[in-house]
Amino acid sequence: MIGGRLLHFEPFVPQARLRITMRIPGEPCSEALGSVIHLNSDKPALRVCAPLEVEWATIHMAEIVDEAIRVWASSITVRHCDG
User: Fold this and answer.
1) Which of 40, 45, 43, 32 is nearest to 5 (CA)?
2) For 6-17, b where at least 16 C-beta lie within 10 A, e where not — what string?
3) What would the pLDDT profile of 49-64 be if each residue is shown by its tens digit?
4) CA–CA distance from 68 to each of 27, 35, 71 (Å)?
5) How big is the chain by its Cα radius of gyration, in Å?
6) Could you count the other beta carbons within 10 Å of the beta carbon of residue 18?
7) Do residues 45 and 38 lie in contact, with contact meaning Cβ atoms separated by under 8 Å?
8) Does the chain have fewer CB atoms within 10 Å around its N or its C terminus?
9) What backbone phi and psi angles, to 5 degrees, belong to 57?
C-alpha cells in the first residue's frame, strides 16, 4: 500500500517494464495508473496514464519506483529459477 492505495504491479513481457493498477479502499474496481519503465537500467521512470492521478503519483513517485524495482528484481529471480 502506498499513499492509501493498493498497487498491483504486473510484468509487461518482454520489456523491462511493470504495468501498475491501483485500488482505492472503498472503491469497487481497480484502474490503470501507468507503468514503471527501464527497470533493467539505473534510471527507472514512472509513466502515468491516468491524468487525474498525476499529482498523487508525483507525490509518491519515489515509493512507487522503489517498489517496482523490488518487484522486478524478485520476478527476475523467479524467471531464472524456473528455467
Assistant:
1) 32
2) ebebebeeeebb
3) 999 999 999 999 999 9
4) 23, 9, 5
5) 13
6) 24
7) yes
8) C
9) -65, -35
Residue located via cell numbers 524478485: 74
* Under 8 Å between Cβ of 16 and 37: yes
Q: What is the pTM of this model?
A: 0.84
The one-character DSSP state at 6 is E
- Tell me the three-class secondary structure of 9-66, residue by residue: EEECCCCCCEEEEEECCCCCCCEEEEEEECCCCCCCEEEECCHHHHHHHHHCHHHHHH
Specify the residue for cell string 539505473: 42
